[in-house]
Structures are given as structure tokens and as C-alpha cells.
Specification:
heterodimer, A: 557 residues, Guanine Nucleotide Dissociation Inhibitor, domain 1, Guanine Nucleotide Dissociation Inhibitor, domain 2, 9-stranded mixed sheet, 26% helix, globular, B: alpha/beta, Rossmann fold, 30% helix, Small_GTP-bd (chain B), P-loop_NTPase (chain B)
């Protein structure tokens, strides 16, 4: 092996780059097509896409682990992660005066706030993995899944099913969500009339989806009568459901548990967030095509075996296989602009080293003093999401490991204008020890105090506080004839997260984890960011997965 | 999962490579899998995995070999790299004392990240360059013994001991007869399941 490619791993190097006062490595080379700061999912997907397009890539992260705001972290690290200060890391090397660069300091945004923890964290803390993006799943037919398959990242990640399906919280009880005709048939809690209405509705939607895909295939078989009218497609979905005769509970099933609407669709207050019939049916189509996509996946959703932090790791590895250079534990302290302050030309690392590049991409926790002109939307009302994490003593649904629970708007209290989602995970994932369960909750909010109140009410609705000795709280589970004892809440944490969108322009800033259950919105933004810098390149083309270098003709990937 | 092929049981094993840039990790694998050696190979690019089957007596081990893709250069391997590894080869360059020092750190990292059942081989590569040796075999052998590793000097260039390292790992794997991870999740694959036909008659 030639020594030419050798370099010190994580050790200081003289290399003529000036004296280094600590253990930061000197990066070689010093010029790249693309430099990315932060290893969240959008940054990692972009790194993989840029590397697959033949660009030279440097990808750095100040943390010793991958994932940024999309990390899976140990329970013991959660408090310090959420309370990270906004102070910028100071370069340990006095910056040499640049003859031709303008230096713009980089600061960290305060992303998390109002952190409240209750209960004692169980031991051993390292056996619990917390997902900062939770509750989050992948639909089996999701674009995230397709990206993993196309990029080759799927080889690196294992999944488990959310095999317990979905439950709807309605009038103080949990009801199974009848999300397919088979489920409707089997359901024991629905009245016959409800079953017929829902069955007919799904049949109509399925016929429309089939007709739409048939006409998309240009095989036009004269299925026009089966399609839903254009004027109905543009209606608010709730109005269309009313036209189909769905009663309130069935509308809640379709709107919040299958179409995943966030905001109240049925309120007297004028809500800007009504989903159209078209949007609702798109999600139903995704939901429908997810069931049965993978032979070994049960239900609609899958979850990464070791937490959502695996996904950024997988895409980063894809980028590395295509030549991207990875440096963890490497904060970026400043950005470099040209003299006229029109273009970003590079980044200054904490070691004092300047890296030049054509395109700079940063994770959303970074901001500069120049943010105001670029992030006009950020200076107005920032979107926020309240998230909760719980450790509980048993499953909310007997016999099920992983379950999704939907609390429709106003099901917890009158002021609840947004749905609350809860995802329960078990130890069949490597996220907690046997005998315990993790629950993630979230709700988008404009009023933080109402949002937190709703999260806490959802927690109270399903779980007993630990201190209850004599009295036993009961939770009616409609699918069971006997009353069930509530799981015990061992530990919980509720916090508020700010949401910023990705921004294109001289500096690319990636989207934050949003309020949605899946990654469609985030990946849609990421795709647009890629198109804004490399309009002529295909975004992670099929067959960008590396060849499985294999001498065994029998082996299948 | 065990597969049956002609009466032989196939044991699947994930094997990871560790060691400094330039120590010759990829060259070892290329020699083992392809019988090739490239004199001035640049840092590892382009291949994430290699697969090779090895027969040991009446049993077969199928190695899935993960290469670092260069992420070791600035000590930035992800946890998923180590996870589930049945075996690891820590490679150093016998002509570079610093690479042996860092090989020890890789061993420590592996012990911190991996499970205690991982079989670890220490490979002193470039054994054909005896004139420029900086690490004695005795020193490396002593370190290996102290830390429960097994040690071989190899040369990807001359193929010395390359197959022997993998063969020795395979033997130890079969001796250990470790239980396959029951917690294993599903890996996505492109092949449409048979259920796709029946699922088309269902709707959501």
C-alpha cells in the first residue's frame, strides 16, 4: 500500500498548516465541491446525493455521533442535549487575517425549550435510546424507504413492524383503527351500520386510486365513472366525508388516524390547515400500498431497529462509499464569504483551518448574523412542536409490542385544536430493556402552553402515575371485555422544539424535524434543496447503490 | 439464519475491518475475495461490502465483510459499523510503528462498541517488507495474547497468511456456535412479496 493516502486518524498534524494547540486533525484536501455541517437526515441524504453525482464532499459534525437533531441518543445524554447552550464554540487558534475572505461567525440556535422531566430515570440508562424526532415512523411504501433502497442504505439498517396497528382515543376509550376492508370485517367494536358506511367509502377510494393509477399508466380502460369528481377532490376532505355519510367517529378515523391530519378539520374556527380530499386520498393511497409491501412487515409502518439515528448513519455511509470525507467532533465556527459578501466560499473549522467549497450546506441548528435577510420567515412566528417521551411499565394494548395511538382534536379537552400522536415501542426494538416500553408523543402548536397541556393530558389518559399504591386506575379498552389496568408511568420528559424550514440561496440550511409522523415533508424539502444547487443531476438515481462486491454467485443482496 | 445447501449448514457472519488508513485493510479483502492486489490503491472508495464463503470441514461460513469506506480516517465510523459483528480484523502496517499504536486504540474502541463475543484478529500486514519492519512479531504477539486476540502477520501483496486469517476466524466462529441474534429485524429488499397479489384485492 502506498503511504501517500495515509493520514493521521484524529491526531494533530503539522503539515505546514500552522501550529495546532489541541487534538483536531488537519483536513486534507482543503477544497471541496460541497461542505456540509451537521449530520441530520437531510444533510446526510444530501451528502449521499452529492457524492453519487460525483461531487467531492466534506461532511463534518461537532458531535461525536451522527444525527444532529435527528439523533438517537442515550437516556443519560438527553438532558444535556436538550439544554445545549447557544454560545458559539470559539476557535482555539487565533484567526489569521484573511486577505480576501470575510469571516461570518456561526452561532447555534436554541432549538429546544421548556424541558420538564418527571420521575426517576430507570437504570441502566444506557439501555434506553431516545429518538429526538419521535414519534416518527416509515410507511412501508414511503419515499424514505425507496431512497434507502436506491442508495444502498437499506443494507445497513434493520426494521421492525409497528405490528400492533393504530388505536383511536375516543370518548375516553381506545378503539382499533379499521384501516382496511379486512380490518373492518374483523372489528368487534363497530356497529353494522358504521361498517357498511366505512366499507363503501374505502371501496370508493380504492376504485379511485386504481383508476388514477390506471390512467397514469395510460392504459385507459374506461374506468372514468369510478373516479371521484374533480370538484370533490378540491373540497375540504371533511366535507367530502360528510357527503359520504360518515358519522363523527368514522370521520375521525379517516381524518386523523389514516389521513394523518394535524389540525382540527371540523371546527367552527376558521382553520387554515384543512386538508383537501386530494391530499387525504394521497395519504390513504400511501397507507394502502404500505400494507403488504414487505413480506416480513406486518401492517403499515416500520421502525428502525436501533432508532431513527440509524437513517442518517446509513446515508452517510453511502456518501462515504462514494468518496465523501467524514469528520466527527469537528465544529464549524465561522463561514467564509467573498469580499463583496455575495457568496459563501468556505467554512472555518474550530482548529482554525479554512476549507473552501463551491456549496455550503448547514444543519438547522446553526445560524449566522446574516440570517435575517435569508430567513425572513424565521423572524416571524416560528412553528413549534411539543414532544414528549415516556418510559412505561407495560403495553397500552395487551399482546402488542409497537402501537400508534391517535388523539383527535378535542378528544382530550376543548382547547385541543391539534391531534396528538403517541407511538409506543417495545424491547423488540433495541430501544429499551425487556419489560419496559417507550412512548413518544407530539402535537404541533401555536400556543405552547396549550400544546404542553394536551401532551400531559394524553399521558394522563393512558398511564398511571408511579406513586399510586392502593388505587388502581383503569383504562377501558373497547376491544376487550374486561377493564385493563393502566401502564405505570416510570419517567417522562416534555419539551418544545422550534421548527424551521429548509432554505435555499447562497447558504443552504436544511429542514428541522417537523411535526409529521413520517419524513415525506422533510425529504420533499431535501429534494428541492438538491435541485436548487444541482438542477441537472438526478437525485440519488436508481442503481446508485454500490455493487455488492461478491464472489459467491448464490448470495442475494 | 441458517441455510441448507447440499447438506452443509451455512453460517452467516458479519466481519468488520479496522485499522489506519493505508494499513492495507481493503487489500487484504481484495486478496481474500478476488485474489487481486493493486499496488497503489487509493483510500477505500466504491465498495461497501464484500461477500465470501469459506468451507471449514463439513460446515460453511459465509462472511459479509464490511469495509470502512474511509470513515476511519478521521475516526468517524458510525455505531452501525460495529453492530452485530461476529468478527473483526484489526490491521496495522508492520513498517509503521504509529499504525500499531493506533491499532491498539481500534481494539479498545471495538471492545467499547462491540459485544464481548466478537472474535478479534490482529493482522500485521505488509509482511513482505521485512527490511523496513518497525514492529516486531513478538511485540504484537504479546499484545494479542494479553487482550484475547489472535495474531498473524500477513501480506496482501504476496498472499501470505491472508486466507489463513479468515480461515482461523471461521474455525473460531464454528467452535463458538454462537446463537444467532433472535432480536434481528427485517432488512428491506426489492423483491416484491407473494402477498402483493393478494394485497391488491384489499384496500385501506
Amino acid at each position: 500500500m502506498a503511504e501517500a493516502g495515509a493520514d493521521s486518524s484524529n491526531a494533530a498534524v503539522d503539515g505546514g498548516g500552522g501550529s495546532v494547540q489541541n487534538d483536531y486533525p488537519t483536513i486534507d484536501p482543503t477544497s471541496f465541491d460541497v461542505v456540509l455541517c451537521g449530520t441530520g437526515l437531510p444533510e446526510s441524504v444530501l451528502a449521499a446525493a452529492c457524492a453519487a453525482a460525483g461531487k467531492t464532499v466534506l461532511h463534518v459534525d461537532p458531535s461525536p455521533f451522527y444525527g444532529s437533531l435527528y439523533s438517537s441518543i442515550q437516556l443519560s445524554s438527553l438532558a444535556s442535549f436538550l439544554s445545549r447552550e447557544a454560545t458559539p464554540p470559539t476557535s482555539t487558534v487565533a484567526a489569521a487575517a484573511s486577505d480576501w475572505h470575510t469571516v461570518v461567525d456561526l452561532h447555534r440556535r436554541i432549538v429546544y425549550s421548556e424541558v420538564e422531566t418527571s420521575g426517576a430515570a430507570p437504570e441502566p440508562a444506557r439501555r434506553f435510546t431516545i429518538d429526538l424526532v419521535g414519534p416518527r415512523v416509515l410507511y412501508c411504501a414511503d419515499e424514505a424507504v425507496d431512497l434507502l433502497l436506491r442508495s444502498g442504505g437499506s443494507h445497513h439498517v434493520e426494521f421492525k413492524s409497528v405490528e400492533g396497528g393504530s388505536l383511536l382515543y375516543w370518548e375516553g376509550c381506545l378503539y382499533p383503527v379499521p384501516d382496511s376492508r379486512q380490518a373492518i370485517f374483523k372489528d368487534t367494536t363497530l356497529k353494522l351500520k358504521e361498517k357498511n358506511i366505512l366499507f363503501r367509502f374505502f371501496k370508493l377510494v380504492q376504485a379511485h386510486i386504481a383508476a388514477a393509477s390506471a390512467s397514469a399508466d395510460e392504459t385507459g380502460q374506461g374506468d372514468a365513472p369510478a373516479r371521484i369528481l374533480e370538484e370533490d377532490l378540491d373540497l375540504p376532505f371533511v366535507e367530502f366525508l360528510k357527503k359520504q355519510g360518515l358519522p363523527p367517529k368514522m370521520r375521525a378515523v379517516v381524518l386523523y388516524a389514516i389521513a394523518m391530519a394535524d389540525y382540527n378539520q371540523d371546527g367552527a374556527d376558521p382553520c387554515e390547515k384543512l386538508i383537501t380530499t386530494r391530499e387525504g386520498i394521497d395519504t390513504i393511497a400511501l397507507y394502502s400500498s404500505s400494507i403488504g409491501r414487505f413480506a416480513n412487515a406486518e401492517g403499515t409502518f416500520i421502525y428502525p431497529m436501533y432508532g431513527h439515528g440509524e437513517l442518517p448513519q446509513a446515508f452517510c455511509r453511502c456518501a462515504a462509499v462514494k468518496g465523501a470525507i467524514y469528520v466527527l467532533r469537528m465544529p464549524v465556527v465561522a463561514l467564509l464569504m467573498d469580499e463583496e459578501k455575495k457568496h459563501f466560499v468556505g467554512a472555518r473549522l474550530v482548529s482554525g483551518q479554512d476549507i473552501l467549497c463551491q456549496q455550503l450546506i448547514i444543519d438547522p441548528s446553526y445560524k449566522t448574523i446574516l440570517d435575517v435577510p435569508f430567513d425572513g420567515s424565521d423572524s416571524h412566528f416560528p412553528r413549534k412542536v411539543v414532544r414528549g417521551v415516556c418510559i412505561i411499565s407495560k403495553s397500552v394494548k395487551q399482546g402488542s409490542s409497537n402501537v400508534l395511538v391517535i388523539f383527535p382534536p378535542k378528544s382530550l379537552e376543548e382547547q385541543q385544536v391539534t391531534a396528538v400522536r403517541l407511538l409506543q415501542l417495545s424491547s423488540n426494538l433495541a430501544v429499551c430493556p425487556p419489560g419496559m416500553f417507550m412512548s413518544y408523543l407530539s402535537t404541533p402548536c401555536t400556543d405552547v402552553s396549550v400544546g404542553k397541556q394536551c401532551i400531559k393530558k394524553a399521558i394522563d389518559a393512558l398511564y398511571s402515575p408511579q406513586a399510586s399504591d392502593g388505587s388502581e386506575d383503569h383504562l377501558e379498552t373497547a376491544s376487550e371485555s374486561t377493564e385493563d389496568v393502566k401502564p405505570t408511568l416510570i419517567w417522562s420528559c416534555v419539551y418544545v422544539q422550534e421548527i424551521t424550514q429548509g432554505t435555499a440561496g447562497p447558504l443552504l440550511s436544511c429542514p428541522m424535524p417537523d411535526e409529521y409522523l413520517d419524513y415525506r415533508n422533510i425529504l420533499g424539502s431535501t429534494k428541492k434543496l438538491f435541485a436548487s444547487i444541482y438542477a441537472d443531476e438526478e437525485f440519488l438515481p436508481k442503481k446508485s447503490a454500490p455493487v455488492y462486491a461478491n464472489d459467491d454467485s448464490d448470495s442475494a443482496e | 439464519m441458517a441455510a441448507t445447501a447440499g447438506g452443509n449448514k451455512i453460517r452467516n457472519a458479519k466481519l468488520v475491518l479496522l485499522g489506519d488508513v493505508g494499513a492495507g485493510k481493503s487489500s487484504l479483502v481484495l486478496r481474500f475475495v478476488k485474489g487481486q492486489f493493486v499496488e497503489f490503491q487509493e483510500s477505500t472508495i466504491g465498495a461497501a461490502f464484500f461477500s465470501q464463503t469459506l468451507a471449514v470441514n463439513d460446515e460453511t461460513v459465509k462472511f459479509e465483510i464490511w469495509d470502512t469506506a474511509g470513515q476511519e480516517r478521521y475516526h468517524s465510523l458510525a455505531p452501525m459499523y460495529y453492530r452485530g459483528a461476529a468478527a473483526a480484523i484489526v490491521v496495522y502496517d508492520i513498517t509503521n510503528a504509529a499504525s500499531f499504536t493506533r491499532a491498539k486504540k481500534w481494539v479498545q474502541e471495538l471492545q467499547a462498541q462491540g459485544n464481548s463475543n466478537t472474535i478479534v484478529a490482529l493482522a500485521g500486514n505488509k509482511a513482505d517488507l521485512l527490511d523496513t519492519r518497525q514492529v516486531s512479531a513478538d511485540e504484537a504477539k504479546a499484545y494479542a495474547q494479553e487482550n484475547g486476540l489472535f495474531f498473524m502477520e500477513t501480506s496482501a501483496k504476496t498472499a501470505t497468511n491472508v486466507n489463513d486469517v479468515f480461515y482461523e476466524i471461521a474455525k473460531k466462529l464454528l467452535q463458538g456456535q454462537q446463537v444467532q441474534n433472535p432480536q434481528g429485524g427485517m432488512v428491506l429488499n426489492q423483491r416484491p412479496p407473494e402477498r402483493m397479489v393478494s394485497s391488491s384485492s384489499c384496500c385501506a
